[in-house]
Write a structure and sequence with these properties.
This protein is an alpha/beta fold. It has helices at residues 9-21, 35-46, 60-69, 93-97, 113-120, and strands at residues 26-31, 51-57, 75-79, 103-108, 124-133, 150-155, 161-167.
């Protein structure tokens, strides 16, 4: 498995900057895992950032490959088994609902992206970000109507797009008391 994100380098930088800007502990939810999961988990670990990463993947083999590459890191890769190899034929509400609770960053790079973006609305901490990979696909345009505070389209030189959704009225994140000494 390639442990580099399968996305434009411009998009990798946008998400990396967002991940590193969050006050720890950083909570990440991800629909669809892969090389990007490995890349960012290692980057956060290497920067000594306290984080928790939860991914949902529909392919058991792919999920096991990712698990092997993030072994020992605070990454929980869950497999959502549709019970059939043709996931396009099934309603996917359970897949979409499988990630819940608030998060700082949500990365959507798997199945049913519009439904996942709708699910993430209201579940991203105040100031949090939702990223939708491959937004250049026209059938994702309805995501722009969901009610996020701000939507930014990052267009890469290769024509691919990353949609960054900001939510400024989400739940408040509570931090444990800590000293700056």
């Amino acid at each position: 498995m390639n442990t580099c994100p399968m996305m434009a380098s411009e998009h990798v930088r946008v998400i990396t900057d967002a991940l590193m800007a969050i006050k720890p502990p950083v909570i990440v939810h991800e629909w669809g895992c892969g090389g990007s999961t490995v890349h960012w988990a290692r980057a956060l670990y290497g920067a000594c950032v306290d984080y928790r990463w939860t991914s949902v993947e529909h392919s058991p083999r792919w999920a096991n490959d990712v698990r092997g590459l993030v072994d020992g890191l605070p990454v929980d890769v869950r497999v959502f088994d549709y019970g059939t190899p043709d996931v396009r034929l099934l309603p996917c509400e359970a897949y979409v609902d499988s990630l819940d609770g608030p998060a700082d960053i949500v990365i959507i790079d798997g199945r049913k992206r519009a439904r996942c973006a709708r699910r993430a609305l209201g579940r991203v901490f105040d100031g949090g970000r939702v990223f939708v990979h491959d937004f250049e696909r026209g059938y994702y345009d309805d995501i722009l109507k969901l009610g996020y505070s701000e939507a930014i389209r990052h267009r890469a030189a290769n024509g691919s797009e990353l949609l960054e959704l900001r939510q400024d009225d989400g739940p408040q994140k509570h931090h444990k008391w800590q000293s700056d000494i």
